[in-house]
Fold each of these.
Amino acid sequence: MLQDISSLCIEPGALLLWLGITYRLFEGVSRLIAGTKCTTDQRTISSLSLQVPFSFLIYERAGSEEQLCLTIRDAHSPDVMQFHPLRWYPADPQWRLKAIWIPATAQEVIQVATTTGTSFHTPKIGYAEFVVKGTKHKLTPVRVEDGKLFFIFLDATRSKDTDRGGRFLLVDLLRDGVKQPGPILLDFNEATNPYCEYSIFTSCPMATRENTLPFTIRAGEKRYRF
């Protein structure tokens, strides 16, 4: 069954034959499907839908400029047809926290583990410093994504209520980007689950030890219930 097919990682230049579809990846990426050739940059995420009950997504694996992944989605999978409503904590204004953005002063890298046992390195661009109950804490973003700081964090709710690998939080950048210090807002009510919370056939980055907070944040999205 299609929902049992996991992500398939393939190198640029590989040839994949599947259900009569020829999908050839060149540097750049070129693709040939149903006689139509399209070209897109390797770093661009491209979704390809066919006239059948499934679609597939070709994307660059996190932290890798050499490896691409092909993920197959079965629109008729029982997991899709019986998808449950998402669960959230009630919005709580106390978890809209003012923080100070501190840019990195040295060329450092952080290592980010994934749920499939791999890891990747990414430059440390700085960190957010904030106060909870009189104590200072820090969160380090993985990168800038879609013009926002992308954080992955864990807190004490992970033991029962939230994702065990960490939740995602996108935060607006300062007007001057990440190079200058300044105030930012951490709104934990907007914390969301990683995509692997909904499917075992994905690979997600996880929170680092530095981003594991020692207190409970009852805000944002809760763990998905199958």
Amino acid sequence: MTGCTDDSTGYFGTAGRYVLKLGEDMFGTGKQGIVGGDLPTEPQGNEEGLIFYNYDVKEVDKAPKDEKTAYNLDGPENSGIVVPAAPAVTLQPAQPGSAVESGTKIVLTSGHCLTGNADYEFVEDQLYFKAAANFIYWITGSTPGDSGKVKLKQSRFYKSDTVMGDLCKKAGQEIKSGDGEDEIYKKIAVTLARYGFVKNNKLVEESNGVYLKASVGSFLSGTINKDRRIKFYKKYSKKLDGFVQVMNEARKENTKLWSGWGNKYCYRDSSSKVDTSVVPSNRNTWAGGDAGIFFKAKATAGGSASVGGTSIPEYELNYLITTSLAKKLAKEGYTVIKSKQSKNTQQLQNGTEYSNKNISLFAAEKQAVLHIVVHCDSAGNSKGGHLIVPSKDVSGVAEDSKKAAEAFKDKAGSGVLRSRNKINVTDGYTTTNFAEVPTILMECFNMDSNDECNKFLEAKDGKVTLKEKAFWGSDRFNAVLAAIEAVDK
């Protein structure tokens, strides 16, 4: 078996070299391993699992004689090994190295990924409601009345080459030239229900038309409060995620769903402006003013830093820092879970794709005390880092995130953080908007500053490495510990 090195003796005693160490503190040492990543002490597997110390171990004959009986040598691969007659030795746990409570989990994410991901995802959970309200208004040409009913108007989508026709086709409900009005309405109802825009596919026929019940209810009856938007997210988000997947496909194919709706209403980037001409004039009551900004790219590759004529992409630099921090926190007794297992991976440890939304969901899945997302900044001539925390307390973690950031700031020494705006409280980042555990985005230093790059980085054999002593010093790492302690209840 592999994964245990000589330095494992500090965790498990001499016998610890011959067992496989994973993330759990099976021996009560107070020491936690690092789960995920490619550190020297990391095991082959990436799952947190139990350790069976009398598992068949082929090379157990290399262990001291008085330890051999602690292992089961019955396996065929161990034939020829003589079992000593001495009684089994009980493995004594080493003394804990800190007062950290066993099982305290910290999730570390290195920001950005190798190629990025240009597909779109929602910027925040409350926007699911706003996007659904926007789409149901636009696609039907009517706003839900007090009962939440929307009237279907055949003239808007009876052809297959319309936005609705494109969406129906994606849902397996293709509108064909020979379809009658009733058949078209049925296909539209099934499609809109599948993607969460209406409550169900039940058509309501009245004297003046055919109606469906909008999932958003009557969104023009007044300002839609946060609780209602969050309730909608919990109920319909999976269906609307399916719609976003279809829209991303339409974007690549440049079909009507994208060119007719998505390209106009769902995003903004450096080369495009949002068209809100079809949005109802009193949209401020339901869409927060700018109805068009619903999505951002799932991930980008980030910037780059350079030292001694050698450059390093930010995603790789962030991974170097994350790996270094993981080692230091593990030595303090924390269970450290790296969401990315290697610098070039496009997936998280749980198999989901790397995205700014998914890293927050991953941290919540692992029940982290604190989620630290490592970034480096590109900020002109400024020096020093800064912290980013959520402003919207959607999941009840904004206050604790700010508390952790304040603790970091108070402990950080001169030069760790920039002189002004040390903490940025914002709703502009997908990661913090979807945070379900206390979360800090840690912009470590300015990659545009030659002084900072020379201070913290060095080039060796064509590769950029981190000057760990200069980078962490005594202040930056202590600031990280202070942030954790501030929320470790």
